[in-house]
Specification:
405 residues; VC0802-like; 2 domains; 7-stranded mixed sheet
């Protein structure tokens, strides 16, 4: 089969904006397969066709499509002329070596000028296949469904549909900044925002040189994997150990976790504004740890002027873990590391923080100076996927210091 036919779903509801969403999806698909032997990616009357070259491995192309948001489903397909005899003969040829007890033909006409209706096409083509193979027609629960989609000058046919990730094409909903801890939750939160069309920039807080570089390496691995879903990512690595030491000297122990998180949001928001990101994203879940009570979440979120999104807020750990396994981040997230969240953490952190008490404790800290220095000294790394024809599965990474810009 020489083509892959991509179908979309949510884009259909976009009315007059549909061409813009379609153009972005086509552009994203082209980028996804840019290092593979795909001759063209083109929009065709409610679907998108990827024309495969002779050296293309269709399963490899399919894997790239499976990681492109906006795709509802796709199929490995062949093309033919608008001639039912030729179509039936081509289908029978491609069905050689395949056996089943029951089947049906499902026809769709994108161009209603074709002289036969869809049910008539199904009867005509299905009759030829039944006569040639002796299979039984079952319209309700067939073992095999043969799809035929009639366009103005050609017809596509295929036998199976592969599920895509759904959602909206990356880049159609603007940019957000995701706080990436290295645990199970925050990568899933970022992925869910990607699925809604957001391009996610990442910030990771680490405590090197107080602790090892392990958490930074883990963050890089997570961003490398997540970049296979959005094609380009930027990661900010922010040193947080010295900031924590300042907090330990000035803030009562029970309040420190809340103060840490408020400082993280302040720093993240400064980076977000430099990146023209429109919101912050965290992996917070109500009640999962002591710092994620409703009271603490409210006090921590109070410091952010930008919208603060928590996509996992009502999920439980099993649901989040299942999604992490599905997108591939789970094996990385469970690698042991020395996370800054475990450094200088009190034995009994405050679970019902009061905003006035936290703000009073923060008066002892040079907040603006701490935020400015953290942003200025942040290391910035860029990730791209695909990087090259030989680089499938690995994002290109380049590092630089940009003063948070």
């Amino acid at each position: 089969m020489s083509s892959i036919v991509v179908h979309y779903q949510e884009i259909v509801l976009k009315g007059k904006n549909r061409p813009w969403f379609m153009g972005r999806l086509v552009r994203n698909l082209r980028a996804a397969v840019s290092d593979l032997d795909v001759r063209s990616v083109r929009a065709l009357m409610g679907r998108i066709e990827l024309v495969l070259g002779p050296d293309a491995v269709r399963e490899e192309v399919g894997d790239r499509i499976r990681r492109t948001f906006g795709v509802a489903n796709f199929s490995y397909a062949s093309r033919g002329p608008l001639d039912l005899d030729v179509l039936a003969a081509a289908i029978l040829r491609d069905l050689e070596g395949r056996d089943c007890a029951t089947f049906r033909v499902s026809a769709r006409r994108a161009d209603k000028r074709f002289p036969l209706t869809s049910p008539q096409i199904e009867r005509e083509v299905g009759g030829r296949i039944k006569q040639a193979r002796g299979w039984t027609v079952d319209l309700d629960d067939p073992e095999l469904v043969i799809h035929a989609e009639f366009l103005t000058n050609e017809v596509f046919y295929f036998f199976d549909k592969e599920r895509g990730p759904g959602g909206l094409p990356t880049g159609t909903a603007g940019r957000v900044l995701g706080l990436l801890s290295g645990g199970i939750d925050s990568p899933v939160a970022a992925w869910r925002m990607m699925k809604r069309g957001c391009a996610v920039t990442f910030v990771h807080f680490h405590s090197y040189p107080v602790l090892s570089r392990a958490s930074q390496d883990k963050a890089r691995e997570l961003v490398t994997l997540l970049t296979t879903w959005q094609r380009h990512s930027r990661l900010y690595l922010v040193a947080f150990g010295e900031i924590q030491q300042q907090v330990v000297l000035a803030v009562p122990a029970p309040m420190r976790v809340v103060v840490y998180r408020r400082l993280m949001l302040r720093i993240a928001e400064r980076i977000a504004r430099a990146r023209r990101a429109q919101a912050l994203v965290t992996g917070d879940v109500v009640g999962q740890v002591a710092s994620q009570t409703l009271e603490n979440l409210a006090v921590v979120g109070n410091v952010a002027a930008l919208p603060l999104f928590r996509p996992l807020i009502g999920m439980d750990k099993d649901e989040i873990t299942a999604q992490a396994i599905g997108i591939g981040t789970y094996p990385i997230s469970i690698i042991p590391d020395q996370d800054c969240c475990t450094l200088f953490t009190p034995r009994h952190p405050q679970t019902r923080a009061r905003l006035d008490a936290i703000e009073a404790a923060e008066v002892a800290l040079p907040i603006e100076e701490m935020v400015e220095r953290a942003v200025r000294d942040a290391a910035v790394e860029e990730f791209d996927f695909p990087a090259s024809a030989e680089g499938f599965g690995e994002a290109r990474r380049s590092a630089k210091r940009e003063g948070g810009r």
